[in-house]
Amino acid sequence: MVEAVIGLGSNIDADKHIAQALKALAKVAQVKATSEIMVTKPIGFTQQEDFSNSAVLLHTEDDYDSLKCKLKSIEDALGRDRSRPRFGPREIDLDIIVYDDDIRDDDYYTRDFLQKLVAQVWTKK
What we know:
Layout: E1 2-10, H1 14-28, E2 30-34, E3 38-40, E4 51-60, H2 64-77, E5 93-99, E6 102-103, H3 107-110, H4 112-122
């Protein structure tokens, strides 16, 4: 069993999409802890709604690539439109921040809110 921290983000009907993503994650792994939801300003493309962000600590038997594929499937099932600009609005964004005690997302180092959200779930291990 491996521990992973997944970052969740949304700025389109965020409460609904984050709740749905958490339910979907519970079907593919053991959810051990969730963080608060933190509202942040958009990065890059700023002419859009603020983002709601959260993190979840999972226990999984999936290797990194399999887990990443499952996250993309959840995004697709929740209506993620990949034709939008990279930093544009989104229904849901699921990223592996930590996998097996290794930081896997470089945004962790530059985005304070990610560090805070990861810390919230990491301390609940």
